[in-house]
Amino acid sequence: PLYPFPQSKQLHLNFFSGLFLLFHFFFFFFATGEKRITMRTAAIVVCVAAALVCAALPSAAIPSRCSSPKQWFGQIFAMDPERGAIQGDYFYDETNLRKARYERYESKTTKGRYHIIELHQLKKYYEINLDTNECVSGDLDRPFIPHSVVDNATYTGDFILGSTGVEDGSVEISTWTHTFVERGTSFYWNGEFTLHGCIPIRSSVASENHFFVESFADIVIGIPDPNAFTPPAGC
Fold it and tell me: Which of 2-16, 22-36, 118-132 has the highest mean pLDDT?
């Protein structure tokens, strides 16, 4: 699995095994009045139980950094301070450092449909107005921000999406944060991922004068249409 869940489960198992061993040892000793247990035996039992508990405590609640799929397609729901609410089809290709989306946006004053292409290896972007076929292109100077848990991200917690009271009605989500500097500007990134599979759920990036948040749904692994990254002729 992409996320090493069995190791996490083992840590929780060690924790509760230690508590279980301690509880039954002292129950047997005090409830039965057993006197044949030597100090050496008692010390060994307590040390083993304590070791199991202590081994689990530092890391049981902190999952390892997971690896998200490098290429996928899904629905995007975003909020841009300039364009307003955005919804559309999203193509993500971390292998080749490129992103594309067919978006519909609506703000208080305007609305429209666009095909946005970001080619970070070429440092170029394209904005094609799907209503007028007008195309605008230019140099892409912002960094490629992956939808993945980066190596130096910090784990901040987890929560349940849905309800554990319903069979197959919940998904466990882990949350991460990261700060990076690009051209002298500090950016603050937050990401939410499924515990199993490390599928991105939501991410946000904020700086002193910029904020962007996006959520994802209906994710399919792979790129169903590579032409999404190709600008139209003459653009």
Answer: 118-132
The two structure tokens encoding residue 166: 């319903």
Residue 34 zone, left/alpha/beta (φ > 0; ψ -120 to 50; rest)? beta
Contacts of 229 (CB under 8 A, 6+ apart): 91, 93, 96, 98, 100, 117, 119
Question: What number is the average pLDDT over the span 75-96?
Answer: 90
Structure tokens at 48: 């083993």
The model's pTM is 0.70
Q: Which of 93-97, 106-110, 221-225 has the lowest mean pLDDT?
A: 106-110
Q: Which of 218, 204, 208, 215 is nearest to 156 (CA)?
A: 204
Residue in the block written with tokens 């230019």: 138
- Report the Cα 199 to chain-centroid distance in Å: 6
Q: E strands along the chain, which residues?
A: 71-80, 84-93, 98-106, 111-119, 124-129, 135-139, 154-162, 170-182, 185-194, 200-207, 210-221
- Sign of the C-alpha dihedral computed for residues 38, 12, 5 and 165 taken in this order: positive
